[in-house]
Write a structure and sequence with these properties.
Keywords: Hydrolase
Pfam families: 4HBT_2
CATH class: Alpha Beta
Order of helices and strands: EHEEEEEH
Strand content: 25-35%
Shape: globular
Protein name: Acyl-CoA thioesterase
Family: Belongs to the 4-hydroxybenzoyl-CoA thioesterase family.
Radius of gyration: 16 Å
GO molecular function, one term: fatty acyl-CoA hydrolase activity
Length: about 140
């Protein structure tokens, strides 16, 4: 997807600890990078730093590795809402090497609306759906 298709783009500066023995960013670290992007997205959407108010849990992550990244490369993570369902919503991500624009990773995640007190899933709150659609600037129904 072109960079302009993403609602939020967040810069990631890899740390030495993110690398494997070959000097590449370790595959497991990309889950953290997309989590950081979700955090940046939520901060722009909600503007309230109290994460106890986040009404969802992570249910699923899919990552496709497209090229290697090294510790000395600056990365950018693009995130956009992919769809909203009745109890869940999905994000699409792309991670690029900043200078060349080379795609490193394409990923998706599914979050489920959740009540931490009762430990049960919830229907998508209408207010959250409206806020997400306004933030994205488009309707976000289920993808077929």
């Amino acid at each position: 997807m072109p960079r302009a298709a993403f609602t939020v783009v967040h810069e990631i500066v890899p740390r030495f600890r993110d690398t494997d023995a070959m000097g590449h960013i370790n595959n497991a670290v990309y889950v953290t990078y997309i989590e950081v992007a979700r955090q940046a997205y939520w901060a722009r959407l909600d503007r309230n730093p109290d994460y106890r108010r986040v009404p969802f849990i992570l249910a699923h992550v899919t990552i496709d590795f497209r090229s290697e990244a090294l510790v000395n490369e600056i990365l950018e993570v693009g995130i956009r809402m992919d769809r909203i369902g009745t109890k869940s919503f999905a994000f699409a991500y792309e991670i690029w090497e900043k200078t060349s624009g080379r795609t490193v990773v394409e990923a998706t995640s599914v979050q489920v609306c959740y009540d931490y007190g009762t430990k049960q899933t919830l229907p998508m709150p209408d207010d959250l759906r409206r806020r997400l659609e306004a933030f994205e600037g488009r309707a976000l129904g289920r993808r077929s």
